Amino acid sequence: MAIPLVDLHKQYAPLKDQVLGEIEHVLEGMHLFLGDNVRDLEREFAGYSGATHGIGVSDGTAALTIILRALGIGPGDEVITVAHTFFATAEAIVLTGARPVFVDIDPVSYLMDPAQVECLITARTKAILPVHLYGQTVEMEPIWNIARRYGLKVIEDACQAHGAEYHGRKAGSLGDAAAFSFYYSKNLGAFGEGGFISTNDDELARNARMVRDHGSERRYYHDVIGFNGRLDEIQAAVLRTKLPHLDEYNARRRAHAARYDQCLAGTPVVTPVECAGNKHVYHLYVIRAPERDALQEWLKERGIASGIHYPVPCHLQKALASLGYKPGDLPVTERAAGEILSLPMYPELTGEEIAFVADSVREFYAKRAG
Ligand SMILES: Cc1ncc(COP(=O)(O)O)c(C=O)c1O
User: Fold this and answer.
1) Are residues 21 and 48 in the same domain?
2) How many angstroms separate the alpha carbon of residue 370 from the centre of ligand 1?
3) Residue 157 CB–ligand 1 contact under 6 Å
4) Atom of ligand 1 nearest to the CA of 283
5) Of 175, 209, 244, which closes a domain?
6) How many angstroms separate the CA atoms of 305 and 297, rounded?
7) Domain interval for residue 190
8) How much distance in Å is there from the Cα of 22 to the middle of ligand 1?
9) What is the C-alpha end-to-end distance of the chain, expressed in Å?
10) 159 C-beta closer than 6 A to ligand 1
11) N or C: which end of the chain has fewer CB within 10 A?
């Protein structure tokens, strides 16, 4: 049985006619950037996420970079974030000229450990950037308290957390601003690239809109240095056809996770934990597995794809060597990187496929024990 990590064909099939109709409509109008679809998506997805402003942008990396720039963060500033994330989180900070300062993660949730944030604050710290990794929000209450006490901004990396909730509030409304990615495999994905900024801050929203479009509010008049970070109309139209299905997609992911949890019970793997007060939307279903690499190979031989998100933490990436981190600096992060494995997860996955994956995991450890 061949099971991919993500199956986009299955999501596309039932939406095909509608998506093609919307794309045709955009092409007939030939208004390809910042038109009706982007404007409507901005209203709809900001509303969905519980924020007053939405800004469609070209991708999640641009969303992060634009937020940081719109807040005036740049050279000489520090931003506290995690190294256990996709590289773009740290990259966006570096792209502004600021310095990422990495905090270790909680060993159970794999998310920013709020208890370790305060000791990293210096006179240069401008913001805390929690990452809602794998589809689960960071424990925000202690982060809000620290930010309030030190006058810091809170920027959510919600690129993997469309629809995730923290005590009933959605990712995207839990900080000064949030960045989303609509990379094709995300819980809400474009058929190409896309990104989004949500915020309740009027001034930040205005600045972000300017940075997204070469620093201009009026064509050919440039008030600040920005870049081209615009979302295009075709991707916005695709996203608008998918948005009404997001809750159902997330509900299916949650049901699949519960099924995986059940089927994997009694094996040596550690299944993901939904922290109290959270609604996890399982962008990824990540287990902690003894003999991870051999397990991954065994699954591959059975046609089961899996992934490692992420094998090298940001602080040990070659591109960030100049920051001066070394192995051992973030022990919980480094240990997780060597043990985690993402199993197939997408809304259209079947119960039979989940059982096959879990049985294959069980067989692997039975063989090792015997
Ligand atoms: C946690 C995280 N941050 C940032 C990004 C960057 O988003 P994009 O690939 O749309 O630039 C991603 C997406 O892959 C991500 O998963």
Assistant:
1) yes
2) 42
3) yes
4) 16
5) 244
6) 9
7) 8-103+111-244
8) 26
9) 25
10) yes
11) C
